[in-house]
């Protein structure tokens, strides 16, 4: 199916690895023009190289309140407009409320929630002009809280709420806003969790992987491109009537409504 994304300008945060990188590659294969952001310039350049000549990079720390404005202004400078914003950058420390300190809470919100809010705000007038779309990459922890994902779950719940709020505003401004909730996706982050579980429980990484899949009751972990394809679908005209939708891409991990 042609998703109609050829020539569309797509800004992706957290594009240097994992889900963001896979998403950039999916959009590049559809012929989109890309503005890729993360902190690590070298990794971003590598992604851009794989995405072809219409990919530019912007390396900066999105926790800095000024950076989202600069990112969007740079995209406008290169491309003259924006059609799609993918708010994907996120990294929250795992742990329960007794294990996490003030910094962990502030850090979790300052990247995943505030950067998404600021990028959305900065790109809104441009998306209004292009009748564009925002996709927030959130996470199943926003709907299914757990003790050991206190910051991540809270940030995700806040971002799901913001998704609905933006979608409400977007009805007037012709901007579609949706979210995807990845489950456990096989990225470096998951690899790190497996490693620390293996150390904690004195087991091999292979056994730790199986134990985690069993605990989550999933048959396998997801591939980053499986999330990327859901994002590209939501950005496309095929999803024109999806607005304020929250799509779980989690192999059935979420069992609640
Ligand atoms: N993987 C999963 O199982 C899973 C599950 C649920 C939700 N999610 C969500 O999906 C998104 C992507 O996850 P992932 O697993 O692909 O993560 P990842 O592999 O850890 O990648 C995170 C991306 O964010 C960038 N980033 C981190 N800190 C940043 C900062 N301060 N400023 C700018 N960019 C920053 C990283 O690049 P630099 O380090 O170079 O800055 C990287 O490109 C996140 O929002 C995550 O919460 C993932």
Features:
single chain, 257 residues, alpha/beta, Rossmann fold, 49% helix, 14% strand, globular, binds NADP nicotinamide-adenine-dinucleotide phosphate
Q: How would you describe this structure to a colleague?
A:
The chain is globular, with a radius of gyration of 18 Å. Helix 4 (102-130) packs parallel to helix 5. The mean pLDDT is 97. The chain has helices spanning 18-29, 41-51, 67-79, 102-130, 150-173, 188-201, 205-216, 224-235, and strands at 9-13, 33-38, 55-59, 84-87, 133-137, 176-182, 246-249. The longest helix has 29 residues, at 102-130. It is built from eight helices and seven strands. Strand 5, helix 5 (150-173) and strand 6 (176-182) form a beta-alpha-beta unit. It has two domains: 9-185 and 223-249, Rossmann fold (3-Layer(aba) Sandwich); 186-221, no CATH class. A seven-stranded parallel β-sheet has the order 3-2-1-4-5-6-7, sandwiched between helices. The protein is 49% helix and 14% strand. By secondary structure, it is α/β, with parallel strands linked by helices. It starts with 8 loop residues before the first strand and ends in an 8-residue tail after the last strand. The structure holds NADP nicotinamide-adenine-dinucleotide phosphate. The site of NADP nicotinamide-adenine-dinucleotide phosphate has 29 residues, from helix 1, helix 4 and helix 6.
Task: Please specify the SSE layout and strand pairing.
Elements: E1 9-13, H1 18-29, E2 33-38, H2 41-51, E3 55-59, H3 67-79, E4 84-87, H4 102-130, E5 133-137, H5 150-173, E6 176-182, H6 188-201, H7 205-216, H8 224-235, E7 246-249
Parallel strand pairs: 1-2, 1-4, 2-3, 4-5, 5-6, 6-7
The structure holds NADP nicotinamide-adenine-dinucleotide phosphate.
């Amino acid at each position: 199916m042609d998703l109609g994304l050829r020539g569309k300008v797509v800004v992706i945060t957290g594009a240097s690895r994992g889900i963001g990188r896979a998403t950039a590659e999916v959009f590049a294969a559809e012929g989109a023009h890309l503005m890729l952001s993360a902190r690590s310039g070298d990794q971003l350049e590598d992604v851009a190289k794989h995405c072809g000549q219409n990919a530019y990079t912007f390396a900066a720390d999105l926790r800095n309140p000024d950076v989202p404005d600069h990112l969007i202004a740079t995209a406008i400078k290169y491309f003259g407009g924006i059609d799609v914003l993918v708010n994907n950058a996120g990294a929250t420390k795992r742990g329960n409320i007794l294990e996490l300190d003030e910094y962990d809470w502030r850090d979790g919100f300052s990247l995943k929630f505030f950067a998404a809010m600021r990028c959305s705000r900065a790109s809104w007038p441009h998306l209004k002009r292009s009748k564009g779309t925002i996709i927030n990459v959130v996470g199943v922890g926003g709907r299914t809280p757990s003790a050991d994902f206190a910051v991540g779950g809270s940030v995700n719940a806040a971002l799901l709420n913001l998704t609905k709020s933006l979608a409400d505003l977007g009805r007037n401004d012709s901007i579609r806003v949706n979210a995807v909730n990845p489950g456990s996706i096989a990225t470096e982050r998951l690899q790190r969790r497996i490693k620390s579980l293996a150390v904690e429980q004195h087991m091999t990484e292979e056994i730790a992987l199986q134990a985690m899949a069993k605990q989550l009751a999933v048959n396998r972990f997801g591939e980053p491109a499986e999330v990327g394809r859901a994002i590209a679908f939501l950005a496309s005209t095929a999803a024109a009537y999806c607005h304020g939708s929250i799509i779980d891409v989690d192999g059935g991990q979420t069992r609640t409504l």
